[in-house]
Write a structure and sequence with these properties.
Chain lengths: 294, 161
């Protein structure tokens, strides 16, 4: 029996996307973002501002001076970097609920999402592509569908896992077979309801490359590749493990050989260490929730 | 008491109350060695097969690679009185994503590198749980040398090695 009607009904109660992050997402579409526009997005949210300063001062950005104000952060980091930080700080609330269908650890999904965002950035650097906040954001949001689908996956976990183990299909295909909808589609649906920019929505929907449309945008391919590499790295792996399909054509498309992947994983280790501050954002839920009520 | 081994990390112990653990192995490999006579054990979590990728990195952190980490694992245990012929060797991890074996196969390469080193040095693997697409957490109990893996999943399947 398909759970689709039940799943879709659960979307009716989807809470709004956090306001600061929502407004920052709109700025992703603009070729140029002014300092004033960014300041306007965050200025009424002291908790997000505090997080922005914490992140800006972390080892990950390697600034030699301590940052005390938003303006200073903007000047030293630039708008695209700051946009990433604003979106990450603003979006934490969406990830605050546990996702027991996928992760045994309460913060598992958040940690995986941040890892994937960092990995997209690393790939962008490795491939010398223009570094826009859109890549980081797509990495951060790619699995957002798991927030809602978790409940249903938990109910049917054994059925889904049996399919994976007995038929060798990916976890996503097994979800689709058992539930009638998978986490990528679900994420796409949520992105539509939350008015995410189109490119972001499509990267979420197609991040497992199960449709030909997935190949129309490098952003989607980058998110896919980052997700796979993060799984290989290990650490915050979910119960779905590495049960997703590796497509060699993506490596060929980016002219990546195995040595490149090894080097990327090696460098990711240090980035991941330095970026622990992002993981810690979850420890600060009270502040974030208070801020979102405003 | 739990001692956590991170990614590209290693811990050696002869403290009987300690449980050494490494979390969520993907394509990385965990190697646990133990000498029951002196109750000395070590757990290495390496990420990549060969330090020729970046020799400087291999010097900074030998635990990142199989060819620099594995010899170090044995050497550090010898320092605490372990002897090679008594040591039990257990291996876990080396998972892969689905699809053909020709790509994204760092997990398999990691395992091959370990086999090569062990063959050259006459080390036998006593037990292993490698490959597949599962996430594994690996434990080594110093008091008795018990090694087990937990397959991350709802059943939390535990497998003794």
């Amino acid at each position: 029996m398909s759970l689709v009607p039940q799943v879709l009904r659960s979307l009716k109660n989807l809470p709004p996307f956090p306001m600061v992050a929502q407004r920052a997402l709109i700025l992703l579409n603009k070729p140029e973002v002014s300092i004033q526009e960014l300041v306007d997005v965050v200025k009424f949210d002291p908790a997000v501002t505090a997080n922005i300063l914490r992140i800006s001062n972390s080892a990950y950005f390697g600034l030699r001076r301590e940052i005390h104000s938003l303006h200073q952060a903007l000047l030293l980091l630039g708008t695209q970097e700051l946009l990433k930080i604003v979106i990450a700080s603003g979006a934490t609330r969406v990830f605050s609920a546990p996702t027991p269908g996928y992760f045994t650890e309460r913060q598992g999904l958040w940690r995986h999402s941040v890892s994937c965002a960092l990995m997209v950035d690393l790939l962008i650097r490795e491939l010398s592509l223009p570094d826009q906040a859109t890549g980081f954001t797509a990495g951060l949001m790619h699995d957002i569908g798991k927030v809602v689908l978790s409940l249903f996956v938990e109910q049917k976990f054994h059925e889904i896992m049996n399919l994976v183990e007995q038929q060798g299909v990916s976890f996503q295909v097994a979800e689709k077979t058992v539930l009638g909808v998978d986490h990528a589609e679900m994420g796409g649906e949520m992105a539509r309801m939350w008015d995410f920019p189109d490119r972001l929505r499509l990267a979420i929907t197609y991040h497992h490359l199960d449709r030909p449309e997935a190949y129309t945008d490098d952003l989607t391919l980058l998110v896919y590749l980052a997700d796979i590499l993060v799984m290989m790295f290990g650490q915050d792996l979910g119960m779905d493990g590495l049960a997703y399909t590796g497509y060699p054509e993506v490596l060929r498309h980016f002219h990546l050989r195995e040595k490149n992947l090894q080097r990327i994983l090696m460098n990711f280790g240090s980035a991941w260490d330095e970026a622990q501050i992002f993981f810690g954002l979850m420890g600060n839920q009270d502040g974030v929730q208070r801020a979102n009520r405003g | 008491m739990q001692i956590v081994v991170g990614v590209a990390d290693m811990k050696i112990s002869n403290q009987s109350q300690q449980l050494v653990v490494t979390h969520a192995l993907g394509s990385c490999i965990g190697v646990a060695v133990y000498d029951p006579h002196v109750k000395v054990g070590g757990l290495l979590h390496y990420m990549l097969p060969e330090s020729s990728l970046d020799e400087e990195k291999g010097r900074q952190n030998p635990y990142m690679f199989a060819d620099t980490g594995i010899p170090q694992l044995f050497r550090e245990c010898y320092k605490l009185g372990a002897q090679k012929h008594r040591m039990l060797v257990k291996v876990a991890g080396g998972s892969q994503v689905l699809g053909g074996p020709e790509h994204f196969n760092i997990g398999r390469r990691n395992y091959a590198a370990l086999r090569k080193i062990f063959l050259k040095n006459n080390v036998l693997i006593d037990n292993e749980d490698v490959g597949g697409s599962k996430a594994r957490t690996m434990y080594l109990e110093i008091s008795n040398g018990r090694v087990w893996v937990k397959i991350i999943g709802q059943n939390q399947v535990i497998k003794d090695l």
